[in-house]
Amino acid sequence: QAPVTLSRARFDNYQTMATFARALGCEPTAIRERNEMNTRRPSRSSVSHRGRRVIAAAQAPDGTELARVLEVAVGAAKEGGIIMARKVGADVIKTKVNARDLLTEVDGEVQRIIETRVAEAFPEHGFLGEESVAAGKDASADALRDVLRQGPNWLWIVDPIDGTTNFVHGMPLSAISIGVAYKGELQAAVILDPFRDECFTATLGGGAKLNGSPMKVGEESTALEAVVVTGYAPTDASTDVMLKGMTALANLPVRTIRMLGSAAIMLAWVACGRVTAYFEADLNSWDTAGGALLIREAGGQMTNLVGEEYDLTTRPILASNRATHAELLACLMVSLRH
């Protein structure tokens, strides 16, 4: 089979998009609804630029405001991280979508800490936390859509424990993820790994940092050099997509493939150069919002699995160091056709 070469993998034709939507276990109408919502967004005083929205300069948050938002986000995450580190291995209190989708009492406890700190500092800001939304991708997509359409300009998108299965089993590989958006555009991000005492931060236009020091994506230039990570999804449809992708990448080949169980940490690791790329078939906004800004500010790239630039409504993702993105994306796209 001839290799696929993509310099800019982007599809505007609805039928082509529908084919890939079905491969990802989505209905084509979901693509249409997302496009319709994106079409309406420019009415919120924004303009389109290179495939993503940007806030008009006169209305963008200033540096002082962003610094305050980041300060509160870091403080809240660290406070929650103390609880996480103390209670790792906590019992499951219930399952959500199925037995792979776990919930502990610590998830809610950490979210309440963060939500309280946000309300104290910014009572006018909106808050979307995983534990406040019913289980399932439809509920999460609806909650995000509603708050983007009707909510306040500022929105905090929070996963109190990303990597709950690892957390439950006593594996110190989970994190708190916070993304803060203004009029739908990510402005600040924090991913806190309390077990390694690592705090990954970014602000829009301000770069990305690890414990206060600048960080950047890795320098791998080809797929053969790439360390690629994926996850094990809570649904069979999403897992099938990822297993097909792993097989295709192994045959490409890439240097190695890992499944480590925390989207937030993997995105942070792409941003700091520990791994080259990360892909998943279906993630919620709270899984990806913080990591997406980290990667952008660290020089990387994040798209969906048909090459469209990431926004908060994106569910299937490929995040990379940018240099390997086209080659990895082409491989994954071919795998989804079969």
UniProtKB/TrEMBL annotation:
Enzyme Commission (EC) number: 3.1.3.25
EC supergroup of this enzyme: hydrolase
Pfam families found in the cross-reference section: Inositol_P
Keywords of the record: Hydrolase, Magnesium, Metal-binding
GO BP: any one term: signal transduction
Pathway: Polyol metabolism; myo-inositol biosynthesis; myo-inositol from D-glucose 6-phosphate: step 2/2
Keyword Magnesium found: yes
Binding site for Mg(2+): E130, D159, I161, D162, D287
Cofactor(s) annotated in UniProt: Mg(2+)
Gene Ontology molecular functions: inositol monophosphate 1-phosphatase activity; metal ion binding
Reaction(s) catalysed by this chain's protein: a myo-inositol phosphate + H2O = myo-inositol + phosphate
InterPro entries to which the protein is assigned, alphabetical: IMPase, Inositol_monoP_metal-BS, Inositol_monophosphatase-like, Inositol_monophosphatase_CS, Inositol_monophosphatase_SuhB
Family statement: Belongs to the inositol monophosphatase superfamily.
Protein name: Inositol-1-monophosphatase
Species the sequence originates in: Ostreococcus sp. 'lucimarinus'
